[in-house]
Design a protein that fits this description.
The protein is of the alpha/beta class. It has two domains: about 1-175, Rossmann fold (3-Layer(aba) Sandwich), CATH 3.40.50; about 185-275, Pantoate-beta-alanine ligase, C-terminal domain (Pantoate--beta-alanine Ligase, Chain: A,domain 2, 2-Layer Sandwich), CATH 3.30.1300.10. It has helices spanning about 5-15, 35-45, 75-85, 95-100, 115-120, 125-140, 150-165, 195-200, 200-215, 220-230, and strands at about 1-5, 25-30, 50-55, 90, 145, 170-175, 235-245, 260-265, 270-280. The strands form two sheets. It has a six-stranded parallel beta sheet, sandwiched between helices. Strands 7-8-9 form a three-stranded antiparallel beta sheet, covered by helices on one side. The longest helix has 16 residues, at about 125-140.
Length: about 290
């Protein structure tokens, strides 16, 4: 696997990689890689001839008081995992390579960015949309892959790439979970042993709410029970626990169409997000 840092090296590295007619996949990450990221690389290998990954802890998507400075960084271990998974090229841009002096552009995806994560983390999706657009424009992949775990992020990125005509296929990859159901996340590293045990209340509540809704229980009741069970497990605050339309992300107060349960809650100092599909005839995801 080739590793490059400078934007100036990217074009020639890509030229060396892209033989005529070959497809390139891009897997953007912020590092602190886990099996969920490796699933992105493996899916990418099935969809393209060459796989490029990026590791960039993007300051623009962190708000004041968020965990930018303590975000886990483990470049050597990450590079080894990517190489092992069959990644061809790793680009590790510096902040100044992505946001040179005088950088003044923000991409805002109206509508999809405002609620849920957007309300809890103002400006977050502008940072995501801006950096993903820069990475896509720099690498020029045929396909780019993102985890379903950040369901709203995926929707924002799909909208942004379609609106800007970036000509890249955006692929969502199912969430990878630990054996007990907790969605893998780089931020799980912040959890104490006790918080880690109690954190499964979040996926458990999503699962229970899905069953309740699919059994015809009133949505408001199913959501209230789910919120209570998370609070009982020791989560200190719940930013949202909602049933939404999977396309528009608008809240639903009764079952209709393709639905998603989405949630964000904090245990100790760690904010976790998760989501599951709610489909009448789908087999359970976990
Ligand atoms: O999901 C992430 O890791 C980040 O939000 C992304 C898409 C790499 C943009 O920084």
């Amino acid at each position: 696997m080739q590793i490059i840092r400078r934007l100036e090296e990217l074009a020639s590295a890509l030229a060396g990689l892209r033989q005529t007619g070959e497809k390139i996949a891009l897997v953007p990450t912020m590092g602190a890689l886990h099996a969920g990221h490796i699933a992105l690389i493996e899916t990418a290998r099935g969809q393209a001839d060459r796989v490029v990954a990026t590791i960039f802890v993007n300051p623009m998507q962190f708000g004041a008081g968020e965990d930018l400075t303590r975000y886990p960084r483990q470049e050597t271990a990450d590079a080894a995992m990517l190489e092992q998974a069959g990644c061809d090229l790793l680009w590790l841009p510096a902040v100044a390579g992505i946001y040179p002096d005088g950088f003044a552009t923000r991409i805002h995806v109206s509508g999809l960015s405002e609620r849920w994560e957007g309300a809890a983390r103002p400006g977050h999706f502008d940072g995501v949309a801006t950096v993903v657009a820069k990475l896509l424009l720099s690498v020029g992949p045929d396909v780019a892959l993102f985890g379903d775990k950040d369901f709203q992020q995926l929707a924002v990125i799909r909208r942004m790439t379609a609106d800007l005509g970036l000509g890249v296929a955006i692929v969502g990859v199912p969430t990878v979970r630990d054996a007990d159901g907790l969605a893998l996340s780089s931020r799980n590293a912040y959890l104490s042993a006790d918080e880690r045990k109690r954190a499964i209340a979040l996926p458990d509540a999503l699962d229970a709410a899905r069953h309740a809704i699919l059994s015809g229980e009133p949505v408001a009741e199913a959501l209230a029970v789910a919120r209570q069970s998370i609070a009982d497990a020791g989560f200190s605050s719940i930013d949202y626990f909602a049933l939404v339309d999977a396309g528009s992300l608008q809240p639903l107060d009764s079952s209709s169409g393709t639905m998603r349960l989405i949630a964000a809650a904090t245990i100790g100092d760690t904010r976790l997000i998760d989501n599951i599909a709610v489909e009448m005839d789908a087999s359970p995801e976990r």
